[in-house]
User: Which sequence fits this backbone?
């Protein structure tokens, strides 16, 4: 059976297991990283020299790391989920890459500041600055989502996967933020999907 190495609370691991759940791909998830450790041990580094999660391992020994690459690999052959048409696929991949290079790093300090940092050590100014920068980026997504059920069409595709965990934390954590009605509606549509609820919503934010 396909194995996914990584703790369930990692947003990057969520991308992989949510994709599996959406596509009914059987998998075994193995706790690694965070409180479970193991990601700096040789056995894991031989699979993923970055020591990060997730790592995908096939029964025949094929190994793949980098979350968005894993999502693409899992979705390959599922043409509605990972568009086969050249331009539609490029559109979906563009949004995936934008999350990885721009939205994720900009949003990260909010999560780390509010969840991973003890209250007495938090930097409110840094968190507020990250909220402001992320809000600027979310204006782009808000405009994109106007009149759309999902990021690239009438149903979930690989393009939505990288944003699901970020939207969940954005709307569920306690901090002042601008209103984004289209993003809120997008998030609620994701929450209505059993795979998203199981792999993202029902997992503690820690």
Assistant:
């Amino acid at each position: 059976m396909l194995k996914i190495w990584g703790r369930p609370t990692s947003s990057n691991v969520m991308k992989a297991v949510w994709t599996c759940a959406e596509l009914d791909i059987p998998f075994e998830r193995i706790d690694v990283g965070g409180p479970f450790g193991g990601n700096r041990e040789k056995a894991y580094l031989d699979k993923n020299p970055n020591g990060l999660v997730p790592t995908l391992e096939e029964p025949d020994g094929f190994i793949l790391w980098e979350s968005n690459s894993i999502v693409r690999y899992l979705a390959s052959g599922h043409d509605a989920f990972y568009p086969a048409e050249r331009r539609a696929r490029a559109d979906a991949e563009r949004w995936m890459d934008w999350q990885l290079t721009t939205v994720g790093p900009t949003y990260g300090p909010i999560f780390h500041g509010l969840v991973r940092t003890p209250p007495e050590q938090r930097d409110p100014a840094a968190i507020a600055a990250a909220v402001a920068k992320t809000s600027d980026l979310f204006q782009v997504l808000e405009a994109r989502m106007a009149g759309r059920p999902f990021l690239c069409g009438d149903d979930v595709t690989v393009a939505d996967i990288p944003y699901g965990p970020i939207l969940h934390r954005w709307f569920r954590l306690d901090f002042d933020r601008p209103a984004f009605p289209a993003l809120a509606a997008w998030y609620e549509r994701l929450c209505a999907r059993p795979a998203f609820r199981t792999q993202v919503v029902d997992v503690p934010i820690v």
In short: The longest strand covers residues 2-5.
